[in-house]
Amino acid sequence: MPRSPQQILQNDYLIARAKIIEVAAVLDRIDRAAAGSANAQTDPLKLATGSNVLSRSDASPEASAYGSGNAVYSDPSYQKIQNAIAILSDKLPDKTRRIQELLSRPYAPDWMQQFQLPAN
Amino acid sequence: MDYIDPHIHMVSRTTDDYETLAKMGCVAMSEPAFWAGFDRGSVESFRDYFRQLTDFEPKRAAQYGIRHYTWLCINAKEAENVSLSREVIAMIPEFLDAPNVLGIGEIGLNKNTRNEATIFLEHVELAVKYNQQILIHTPHLEDKYQGTRMILDMLTQDSRIDPSRVLVDHVEEHTIREVLDRGFWAGMTMYPISKCTPQRAADMIETYGTERLMANSAGDWGPSKPTAIPDLILELKQRGHSRDLIEKVVYQNPNQFFQQSQKWKSIAN
Ligand SMILES: [Zn+2]
Fold first, then answer.
1. Domain coordinates of chain A in residue numbers?
2. What's the mean per-residue pLDDT of chain B?
3. If chain A, 120 residues long, is cut into consecutive pieces of 10 residues, what is the mean pLDDT of each piece?
4. CATH superfamily entry for domain B3-258
5. Between chains, do B181 and A47 touch, taking CB under 8 Å as contact?
6. What is the predicted ipTM?
7. What residues does B133 pair with on adjacent strands?
8. B263 CA to chain A: closest CA distance, Å?
9. Mind giving me the DSSP string for B10-64?
10. Domain residues of chain B, as ranges?
């Protein structure tokens, strides 16, 4: 008997939950480093050696550097993550393939001509 | 690097795990009493479990040069059975003088029920009466936020409780701040899927600093990794953190917290 959608949701909910939290943590990590370099203008490694730890009151979402103009936010890799998240929350099917394609270099149909193949 | 695992359930692990942990630098550990994966039938079952925790496990650990300490209680899951819980709480003092018992734990909530809260408060009474430190289990997943707040409410309304003698475990991003702000010690449990990863533990160290913060593996009968603390050490090293910072979290902090018990022998001595 194939599993029902509800069974699959029940089985895989915790896995999805854990992975979403990991993605959030990656984005927060980037924000924190961006905020650190904006506020403290210091060696990013010093961010967390104790002297420069964000104080508890500063560790709020308002203190996030998100959109602060740090170059990281226009980095193509950052954009790819944002675009992939958009695919996760749209209402269209085939999300895994679409994200894989988003994260792939495009196929060049003329690659043989570029390589001048066949060589004879 | 030498480290201490402040929360690991070695009754569920093999002797090979002790050997591996010793090789990775584990010099001491503390093992709170917890749920066995099934509800036990009688107080005698707990008496045997406490013998295992106070007699057998320290010997097994000592074979590999690891100091083994423990905490006693009936866990939150079985606390739903109030009459059994009261029998266990009445029996615990038999073991409080054992040389490796650090206090009462891991007590807490599971589904945040009235029975769980009742038994939690009776454990707190026991700890106060016998001047014991307390180790706290906070609930899992969607129950953690409410349950952690309920636990902190119960502890902070009791003026006899000194937060510096209480360790609140399984904190995550949405509970850590309140635990630390209210003066308690906090433990991050690195546990696949349902708790936090070494990467996120490193993030919390970077965000909240190292004061009163420690990390543990929980290593139990579930899909857990008893070597999670070495994983955290490696993650912190790879991020460029100093040896002093790493050592504070994985060694100095647990050492300082546990030293409040006369029974804890500082490893440095
Ligand atoms: Zn535990």
1. 5-102
2. 96
3. 92 95 96 84 46 45 59 96 97 95 90 84
4. Metal-dependent hydrolases (3.20.20.140)
5. no
6. 0.81
7. B103
8. 31
9. GGGS-HHHHHHHHHTTEEEEEEE----SS---SHHHHHHHHHIIIIIHHHHHHTT
10. 3-258
